[in-house]
């Protein structure tokens, strides 16, 4: 094996429920067995405004989940602020893997690799490889949680694949198999842009803590981006939330829910109030309807309305009947949907 050219590895990772962290640890174990110096850096725990340059001879890995068919903003902004250099870089992502029989259904990377590669190339880096990893999806706010057998299967199969990939990588082989998915990546790219500019803010305002909350503040202390604060003695999610699901997966009383009923009610209210206002706004203030201006105004008003509704909901949860309605219209309350997820130990 030709490992003599790689003596130092630096891994930058972001992880909510542990998938990307596990990949970072698999790389660490692999490097340790081959006497390669390795440094793991959780970007949630470093100064992201003043990033230290990695050693000039190091192979750099960036590992993060896919959020909205792109790297989450915290990782994307980290890459944007990364210092100039000429190191070789490996881009990896963990995305929503599922299981059908013994087949792992692939997730979608979207613009993850393309945008990050463009930024890093401009900064002088050489992109050595792209590698997506289909580990269990943790977004139980969007889909039912996976069972333990599926989670275990996905971890074991993907660990084996990652180790084989690393063997090939260290022997000098490049891997751009992810390019084969370019057609579906292009098709979902508009969603990635919408998620970055608006969608992530909507998701941030769907979380709440039920009366099962015991005030332990674990969610506040462990939030990777410090997006949760205490308001009226209960957790409150700000627009900084990355929807990494760490809070929901770690809550000891399973008090953190996704307000599916709240979202439905908001959509109805939005369609009535904001839709009516936009129509009047376009009619009286513009001689013609400009799609871009209409979108910006509509998005801004909808986010403002969501902020107000979420704040009202937060305080209204003190009323028992409202809290019960919220809980029983939240699918994450029910076992068939809301299995809390934590990645297996690496």
Features:
five-stranded parallel β-sheet, 346 residues, Rossmann fold, Alpha-Beta Plaits, two-stranded antiparallel ribbon
The order of strands across the largest sheet is 2-1-3-4-7
| Residue windows where pLDDT falls under 50 for at least 5 positions | none
The second-level CATH architecture of the largest domain is 3-Layer(aba) Sandwich
Q: Taking all residues together, what is the mean pLDDT?
A: 89
How would the global form be characterised?
Answer: globular
- Main structural class: alpha/beta
Order of helices and strands: EHEEHEEEHEHHEHEEHEHHH
Number of strands: 11
Under CATH at level 1, the class of the largest domain stands as: Alpha Beta
Largest sheet: 5 strands, parallel
Structure description:
This protein has 346 residues and is of the alpha/beta class. It folds into 2 domains: 8-192, 3-Layer(aba) Sandwich (Rossmann fold), CATH 3.40.50.360; 199-333, 2-Layer Sandwich (Alpha-Beta Plaits). It contains 10 helices and 11 strands. The chain has helices at residues 19-33, 73-81, 112-122, 148-170, 182-204, 218-222, 246-250, 260-285, 291-316, 320-328, and strands spanning 8-13, 37-42, 59-65, 88-94, 98-100, 103-105, 126-133, 207-209, 228-231, 234-237, 256-258. The strands form 4 sheets. It has a 5-stranded parallel beta sheet, sandwiched between helices. Strands 5-6 form a two-stranded antiparallel sheet. Strands 8-11 form a two-stranded antiparallel sheet. Strand 9 (228-231) and strand 10 form a beta hairpin. Helix 1 (19-33) crosses helix 4 and helix 8 packs antiparallel against helix 9 (291-316). 37% of the residues are buried.
């Amino acid at each position: 094996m030709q490992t003599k050219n790689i003596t130092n590895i630096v891994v930058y990772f972001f992880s909510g429920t542990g998938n990307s962290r596990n990949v970072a640890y698999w790389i660490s174990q692999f490097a340790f067995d081959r006497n390669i110096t390795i440094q793991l850096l959780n970007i949630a725990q470093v100064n992201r405004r003043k990033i230290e340059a990695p050693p000039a001879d190091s192979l750099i890995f960036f590992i993060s989940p896919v959020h909205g068919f792109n790297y989450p903003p915290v990782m994307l902004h980290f890459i944007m602020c990364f210092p100039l250099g000429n190191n070789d870089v490996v881009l990896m992502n963990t995305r929503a893997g599922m299981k059908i029989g013994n087949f792992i259904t692939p997730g979608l990377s979207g613009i993850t690799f393309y945008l990050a590669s463009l930024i890093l190339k401009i900064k002088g880096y050489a992109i050595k490889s792209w590698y997506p990893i289909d580990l269990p999806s943790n977004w139980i706010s969007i889909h039912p949680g996976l069972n333990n057998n599926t989670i275990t299967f996905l971890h074991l199969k993907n660990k084996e694949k990652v180790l084989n990939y690393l063997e090939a990588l260290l022997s000098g082989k490049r891997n751009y198999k992810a390019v084969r998915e370019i057609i579906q990546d292009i098709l979902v790219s508009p969603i990635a842009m919408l998620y970055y500019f608006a969608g992530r803010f909507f998701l941030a305002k769907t979380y709440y803590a039920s009366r099962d909350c015991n005030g332990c503040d674990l969610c506040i202390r462990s939030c990777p981006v410090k997006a949760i604060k205490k308001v009226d003695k209960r957790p409150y999610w700000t627009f900084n939330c990355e929807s990494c699901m760490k809070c929901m997966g770690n809550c000891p009383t399973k008090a953190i829910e996704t307000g599916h009923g709240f979202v439905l009610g908001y959509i109805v209210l939005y369609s009535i109030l904001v839709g009516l206002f936009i129509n009047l706004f376009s009619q009286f203030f513009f001689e013609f309807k400009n799609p871009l201006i209409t979108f910006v105004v509509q998005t801004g008003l909808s986010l403002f309305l969501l902020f107000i509704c979420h704040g009202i909901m937060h305080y209204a949860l003190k009323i028992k009947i409202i809290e019960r309605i919220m809980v029983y219209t939240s699918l994450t309350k029910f076992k068939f949907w809301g299995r809390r997820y934590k990645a297996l130990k690496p």
